Amino acid sequence: xxxxxxxxxxxxxxxxxxxxxxxxxxxxxxxxxxxxxxxxxxxxxxxxxxxxxxxxxxxxxxxxxxxxxxxxxxxxxxxxxxxxxxxxxxxxxxxxxxxxxxxxxxxxxxxxxxxxxxxxxxxxxxxxxxxxxxxxxxxxxxxxxxxxxxxxxxxxxxxxxxxxxxxxxxxxxxxxxxxxxxxxxxxxxxxxxxxxxxxxxxxxxxxxxxxxxxxxxxxxxxxxxxxxxxxxxxxxxxxxxxxxxxxxxxxxxx
Length: 254
Hints:
The chain is mostly helical. 80% of the residues lie in helices and 0% in strands. The protein has helices at residues 2-22, 26-36, 42-65, 72-92, 98-118, 132-152, 157-167, 173-197, 203-227, 229-252.
């Protein structure tokens, strides 16, 4: 168990670091636990990763909150809808074949990567002057969509949230990352409630991983705030590209 725990804690640290900057930490943490603990049910392993994810996201959100001014109306609308939709998504896992959805997600991610790469000002400066009511309505709508996706499939949720806050609501990368972290808190909490109620969390692994995820998130958020929007933009592209590779690999091996 000691060797397994060391590997998982290292993966949790890296996941917390990446997730604090642009989301996508699950791309490291989830495959790692599936490889290291293959003898456990997949649902149990997914549930176990939610504890460190929540812990790291909480630290990142706190770090951002000290330097970023949150739009509370937008945040509450998005987070509350994401919370409810994630519950529905988790419940729907057994009824909807997410293999049908993954090709669509892959195409969307490729489009996001291409657009972000060629549009050098994307997420660097704030833009779009929506009315307060329209901002709240848009935030609630996309909170529903992304929350449901997070409960149903999961990988790339943080990147999609950042994309929405930038492309739809007009935030810069730092502001988008900060708000995305707060919404991620809601969806992670949903997952923990769901998985813990069904006995699918290995606390002997989850709690040590949470400590290392917190450490990674602390340094990741600090680096993002120090380096600014251009650095986060580069990290965003790297994580989106990694997500594309993951989806493409899963589709090709079918």
